[in-house]
């Protein structure tokens, strides 16, 4: 029989901080609490805490600023600000790829938020959507601000799903997803009927999550994104037909 070795205290602390990063309690670029505060939180000595921080630094999960504290590595945000994201965003056809990705991600997030979300998390989702509605009333032409608010709404939903993989994928791709939402709003909100229908669909997603109805939440999310995709495709077809008509008009007689 092999002897069971107890974990070093610094390893236990390191794993606790890693869990905080994975769970989203510590986000990319965020400063860790002061050394004394962390030592009190974990009820450990400061030398053990320092050793744990050194191990996290060696793993590339945190970094130190001289006289400025310890921070979670910003590179933890997947591909954030990478040239690849800019390349994807520059291709018009990629917007439909992003919609398909969002359909899968947000549908699962809605399902698990309804299944696993706590009451306080559901209240946070409701507050996030109220912020969206407030912006729509006060700044109806500001699609960039609305896209940011909608991204926060979806992020609250994903946090309530308690799925760390979905959360970090969403955060890593946030600039790309937010840009997709903004582009969609700029096209779709030109039609008040379409805009109103999207709002009703989002309310159905929210209501299903609050009611703890996972299947209805996923269905409502999927229907919402399918509606956006179908409407955008119809608009593109109409624009294409218009362009062809204009070219025929311009042909010499």
From TrEMBL:
Residue stretches making up the HTH gntR-type domain: 7-75
Classification via InterPro entries: GntR_C (IPR011711), TF_FadR/GntR_C (IPR008920), Tscrpt_reg_HTH_GntR (IPR000524), WH-like_DNA-bd_sf (IPR036388), WH_DNA-bd_sf (IPR036390)
Assigned keywords, A-Z: DNA-binding, Repressor, Transcription, Transcription regulation
Organism whose genome encodes this protein: Lacimicrobium alkaliphilum
KW DNA-binding (keyword) present: yes
Molecular function GO terms recorded: DNA binding; DNA-binding transcription factor activity
Function recorded in the entry: Transcriptional repressor for the pyruvate dehydrogenase complex genes aceEF and lpd.
Record-given protein name: Pyruvate dehydrogenase complex repressor
Source organism superkingdom: Bacteria
């Amino acid at each position: 029989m092999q002897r069971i070795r107890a974990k070093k205290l610094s390893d236990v602390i390191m794993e606790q901080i890693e869990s905080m990063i994975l769970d989203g309690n510590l986000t990319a670029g965020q400063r860790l609490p002061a050394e004394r505060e962390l030592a009190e939180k974990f009820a450990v000595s400061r030398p053990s805490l320092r050793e744990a921080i050194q191990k996290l630094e060696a793993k590339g999960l945190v970094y130190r600023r001289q006289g400025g504290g310890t921070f979670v590595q910003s590179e933890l945000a997947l591909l954030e600000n990478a040239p690849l994201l800019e390349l994807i965003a520059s291709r018009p056809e990629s917007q439909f790829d992003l919609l398909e990705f969002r359909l899968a991600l947000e549908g699962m997030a809605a399902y698990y938020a309804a299944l696993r979300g706590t009451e306080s998390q559901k209240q946070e989702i409701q507050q996030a959507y109220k912020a969206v509605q407030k912006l729509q009333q006060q700044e109806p032409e500001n699609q960039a601000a609305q896209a940011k608010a909608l991204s926060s709404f979806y992020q609250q939903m994903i946090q309530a799903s308690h799925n760390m993989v979905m959360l970090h994928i969403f955060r890593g791709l946030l600039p790309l997803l937010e840009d997709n939402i903004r582009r969609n709003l700029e096209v779709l909100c030109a039609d008040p009927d379409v805009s109103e229908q999207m709002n009703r669909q989002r309310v159905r997603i929210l209501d299903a999550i609050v009611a703890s109805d996972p299947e209805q939440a996923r269905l409502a999310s999927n229907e919402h994104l399918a509606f956006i995709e179908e409407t955008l495709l119809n608009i593109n077809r109409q624009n294409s037909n218009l362009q062809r008509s204009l070219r025929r008009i311009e042909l010499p007689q």
